[in-house]
Design brief:
Length: 140
C-alpha cells in the first residue's frame, strides 16, 4: 500500500502539480484494478499450490508446480530442522546450567552435613561435660 501511495506522490511531484480530482480518481481506479488482478493471480497460484483447480494444467505445468512444491517442502524442512537444532542447543545449555546448580547444591548439602556432624560432636561433648559435672557434684 505504501508503494502505491509513494508512486502517486512521485507522479504528482514529477508533473509539478497536484492532480485534479478527476485525474486522481482515474489513478486510484487503475491502481485498484491492478491490485484486483494481482490478487486474482495470487489466489489462483495459491489454489494450485494447494492442489486445487489442476485440471487445466498440462504435463509441463504440472511438473513445474511439482518442482516448486518440492523446493518449498525442502525449504520448510530446512527451517524446521534449524529450529529443532536451535531448540536442542538451548535445552542442552539449560541442562548444563541445571547440572551445575545441582552440583552446587550437592556441595552445600555435603557442607551442611559436615557442619551438622561437627555440631553434633560439640553437643555430645558438652552433654558429657554436664554429666561429668553432675556426677562430680553428686560425689562431693
Amino acid at each position: 500500500m505504501q508503494s502505491i501511495i509513494d508512486r502517486f506522490n512521485k507522479l504528482n511531484e514529477d508533473n509539478g502539480w497536484i492532480m485534479d480530482p478527476a485525474s486522481s480518481v482515474k489513478f486510484w481506479q487503475r491502481e485498484a484494478a491492478c491490485l484486483r488482478q494481482q490478487l486474482e493471480r495470487l489466489q489462483e497460484s495459491s489454489r494450485k499450490l494447494m492442489g486445487e483447480e489442476l485440471s487445466d494444467l498440462n504435463m509441463n505445468q504440472l511438473k513445474d508446480l511439482e518442482n516448486k512444491l518440492q523446493i518449498g517442502l525442502s525449504n520448510v524442512q530446512i527451517k524446521k530442522d534449524q529450529m529443532l537444532k536451535d531448540e536442542i542447543k538451548v535445552l542442552q545449555q539449560e541442562g548444563i546450567f541445571i547440572h551445575k546448580k545441582n552440583e552446587e547444591l550437592r556441595t552445600k548439602i555435603n557442607l551442611l552435613h559436615e557442619n551438622n556432624a561437627e555440631l553434633q560432636k560439640v553437643i555430645e561433648a558438652r552433654d558429657m561435660e554436664k554429666e561429668k559435672a553432675t556426677c562430680y557434684q553428686q560425689w562431693i
